[in-house]
Structure formats: structure tokens, C-alpha cells
Amino acid sequence: MGGKYYSDVEINLKSDKLLIESEREKLPLLGNSSEKYYEKPSCLEPCSSSALLVLYLFGFCVFLISGAAIFSILESPVEEQFRDRMRMVRQKFLETHPSVSDDELESLITEIVLASNRGVSAIKNASGTPNWSFGQSLFFSSTVITTIGYGHVTPLSRSGKIFCVLYATVGIPLTLVLLSALVERLLVPTVWFLQFLNSRLGHLYQPLNIRLFHLFIIVSFFVIFFLLIPATIFATCEPEWNYLDSFYYCFISLTTIGLGDYIPGDSINQPNRPIYKIVTAAYLFIGITFMMLTLAVFYDIPQLNLGMLFSTSNDVNSEKVRLAGSSTGSQYGAGDVFNSTTATDDNTHRHVVRVRSRRDDSPSPEESGPKELRLP
């Protein structure tokens, strides 16, 4: 009984969960597993998660202060130039029109600024397109529920302000649910594309390198079709915008920062302004969806997810897998362990491990046949 028995083993593994345990390590073979194991780098083992968090907070504060200092250095001279220009224009106006007192001019400027802050332009006797036409109102509603909030147009009445609060309270959660549902649908072709890259490049590169290449393609798609090309369109449609202004607007809007310094369709002579606003609202909604998709792809790569460094446990179990959902059957990290193929239509992956039978030089017929072990 001292001899060892070997046989051909064929294991059918369902795609909902696979975890092979060995004495030294745990390896997640399929990306659609409900559990993932991520080990922190060995250089970080002596440091506790609390110490890392404190260090990160310190770096974040330094980053915030550095940004404030750089903005102050860059923008203060330009602001001073505008102030000098306004003083010169004001002084020139008073000299040209001596009948107008300084107090009267100050009162007029105050009213103009107040109207401008409420979204009402004083140019051409305030005869431009109204801000609360249906197209303009639809654009405003989209900026509210997507949390962009440009602030160039705000409700003027008390009832409008109350309705805005209620509308945002209901609309923002509904929008988040809809965006999440759309991202989940878009993840299906995204994972298919990753599987295609694994099938073509899995024998040449490590899974992490393939996933980084996949992320690069997704980011490039987002930048080209939702930043560069729309910036070209806005630069053509907006008479006072150059390409940098248009790209700046696209980035600020799709990241939901919404500074409100550049608003499409606010030109007095803008043709078809309501329709232009509706098309812009559709662009913002679709662009934010693809931005969330890009962030989901980025977040699903554990090596790039810095949040895992601050985990209180050594292994991060039960991590939500965004790209490798149970309906997609992706194979993240499995390429370097087994050569897997999709065997059946119900997303069953077959891994074949063949070991030469050698109980003795001439095995008996009943021992030489293959044995099959199936795991549920």
C-alpha cells in the first residue's frame, strides 16, 4: 500500500464560485467569484491601517493646501487686471457722462449684478430668450438631479425654491439608481471585451497587464468620444469659446463639479437655443454614465484600489466585483493558473488537470480508465 495512485481527473466548475485552497496560498481563479483575496504588499505589513490612514489624511491636507496656493498664485494677477479694467471703464463712463453721479452708477451696477446672479442678462434691455422656457427648464432639471448644479440659473419664487428642494430630494436618488442600472448593463460588453483580450493575449502577458491595457482602452474611449469630440463641437457652436474653454467645460460638467462659468447656449444670438439645451442635457446624462463606467473598471482592479490599504483586516473578503458579475463569467486572474475554456452554454468553465497514471508499469484495465470528479 506504499504506492501512490494517479489518474486523469476532469473537474467541471460552475461559474458562480470557485476557490482552490492550498497549504500556502489562496487563489481566486474566476473573476465572478463572490469572494476575492487581496494581500497587501509585504512592505506595508509593519504599518497598521490606522497609521496609513493618518498618513493619507496628512498627504490629502498637503494636497489641498498646495492646490489653494497654486490657484492663488495663478489667478490673483489676472483678477487684479480685471479689477483695474473695471475701474478704468467706470471712470471713463463718469467722465463721458458727467450728469450721472457715482451713486446712481453704483446702484445700476448693483441691479445688473443681482440680475446676472439670478440668471437674467441685462444685455439688450434683457430681451434675450427667457431662462424658463421648456428647453431651458429641462436643462436646469437635468443639472439638478445629476448634481452638476451650475448655479447660473436659480429659482426666483418661493414656491419654485420649495419645489426644487423636493424635486432634488426625489430626483437625485432616482438618477443614481438609473445610472447604476445603465452601468451594470454596459459592464456586460465591457467584460466581453476583457475576455476577448484574455483569449488573445493571455499566453503573452500577465492578467494584471491585460487589465491595465483594458482600462487604458476604456479611458481612451471616454476621453475621445466624451471630451475631445464634444469639445470640438462646442467650440464650433459657441462663438466666444475656444477649444480649451470647450474641453474645460466638458470635463467640469462630466465630473459633476459644475462651476458654471461656461454654460452652452447662453449667448444672446444663439440659434435654436431651447433645442440646443435639450441636446446638451442628453450629452451630460450619457457622458456621466460612461464616466461612472470608467470609474467602475478602475475600481475593480485591486492593485489600483488604494482603499484596500486602509482595511482593518489582512484579507479583504466578500468584495463587490463590478466587472465580473455572475452574469458575465469573466476570468480575471485565472489565466496564469489554468488554461480554461468555456465548455457549456450555462457559463460552465472546464479546467482539465491530467496526471499520468503510474501505479505500476502495467496497470489493470479497471484502474487505467479515467475517473471523473464533479464539484457542485
From TrEMBL:
Main location: membrane
Biased composition (Basic and acidic residues): 358-376
Pfam families: Ion_trans_2
Disordered, as annotated region: 335-376
InterPro entries: 2pore_dom_K_chnl, 2pore_dom_K_chnl_TWIK1, K_chnl_dom
Subcellular location as annotated: Membrane
One GO-annotated biological process of the protein: stabilization of membrane potential
GO cellular component: plasma membrane
Keyword annotations from UniProtKB, A to Z: Ion channel, Ion transport, Membrane, Transmembrane, Transmembrane helix, Transport
Domain of life according to the entry: Eukaryota
One MF term in the entry's GO annotations: potassium ion leak channel activity
Domain Potassium channel residues, every copy: 126-186, 223-300
Protein name per Swiss-Prot or TrEMBL: Potassium channel domain-containing protein
Species in which this protein is naturally found: Pyrocoelia pectoralis
Record field: transmembrane: 54-78, 162-183, 212-234, 246-263, 275-299
Membrane topology qualifier: Multi-pass membrane protein
Similarity comment: Belongs to the two pore domain potassium channel (TC 1.A.1.8) family.
